[in-house]
Amino acid sequence: MKKIILISLLTCIFFLGCNKKQNSINLDDAKIIDLTYSFGKETIYWPTAESFKLDTVFAGITDKGFYYAAFQFCAAEHGGTHLDAPIHFAKGKQTIDKIPLTNLIGKAIVIDIKEKALGNKDYLIKIDDFKNWEQKNGKIFDGAIVLLNTGYARFWSDKEKYMGTAELGPDAVAKLHFPGLDPKAAEWLTKERKIKAIGLDTPSIDYGQSVLFKSHQILFKHNIPAFENVANLDNLPPKGAFVFALPMKIKGGSGGPLRIVAFVNSN
Ligand SMILES: [Zn+2]
User: Fold this and answer.
1) How far is CA 86 from the centre of its chain?
2) Per residue in 91-133, pLDDT tens?
């Protein structure tokens, strides 16, 4: 019974969020793709951030004879698959608990820039990359969740290959190399298109060599949150996926661990 109610509810959400002409997903047949990395010892964090820790509170047979396991974790907000809330780089903008759910659930498009990004660790994703996508797939529709596939997910969790350095501490930041969004493209997306969220498969929406984090600043000024270290984008079509990106609801948080999944038509 509960299952039927849940499925009906999800189906409602789907059809509310889907333009039937563009794509309608039949939940019964849809494939669910997990776009999230597990949190563990190997999880990649910014060189200056604390990494993920999981301590055992208890695991085993209790003195009353039943099995019991509980752990406690400690982690920086920004690491692994996570969400950046607008407040992260824009004073007075949304904290993670205040981002409307409508910004985090909806139809997604995937821009494939693997060829350019894999050939240049410092590649900046350009306005032209979006225009090229539009030539083949039509204009980026209002309310799109935009996902950028740089191909760097293939290097997870080898820090050196994924982000340019495995070193830790403030001096390692200058050694970061990975692709990101050109601030000019961020500006274009906020002015010329109406997207509701953006995400990519690198540690940061700004490229590794960024000093001012301008794409963060531009997007967040417009309350457009960013998903970082997103997994498995190769498994999504250029359009037609429906995404749920639900982060930990940390009161007043600037970001947090994100569970992001996509529903795609299986045929
Ligand atoms: Zn972040």
Assistant:
1) 14
2) 999 999 999 999 999 999 999 999 999 999 999 999 999 999 9
In angstroms, what is the span from residue 229 Cα to ligand 1's centroid? 9
**Helices 183-192/214-221 angle, 10° precision:** 10
Ion ligand 1: residue ranges with CB closer than 5 A: 78, 84, 228, 255
Q: Tell me if 145 is assigned to some domain.
A: yes
From ligand 1's centre to the CA of 195, what distance in Å?
19
Please give the distance of CA 23 from its chain centroid, rounded to a whole number.
Answer: 22
- What domain range is 203 assigned to? 2-50+77-264
Residues 6+ apart with CB under 8 A from 127: 182, 184, 185, 188
The CA 126 to ligand 1 mean position distance, Å, reads 21
Q: How far is the CA of 102 from the centre of ligand 1 (A)?
A: 20
Q: Does the residue 56 lie in any domain? A: no
Calculate the average pLDDT of the chain. Answer: 92
Cα–ligand 1 centroid distance for 154 (angstroms) = 20
Backbone φ, ψ for residue 171 (5° rounding): -70, -20
Beta bridge partners of 73: 54
Q: Ligand 1 centre from 82 Cα, in Å?
A: 6
CATH of the domain at 26: 3.50.30.50
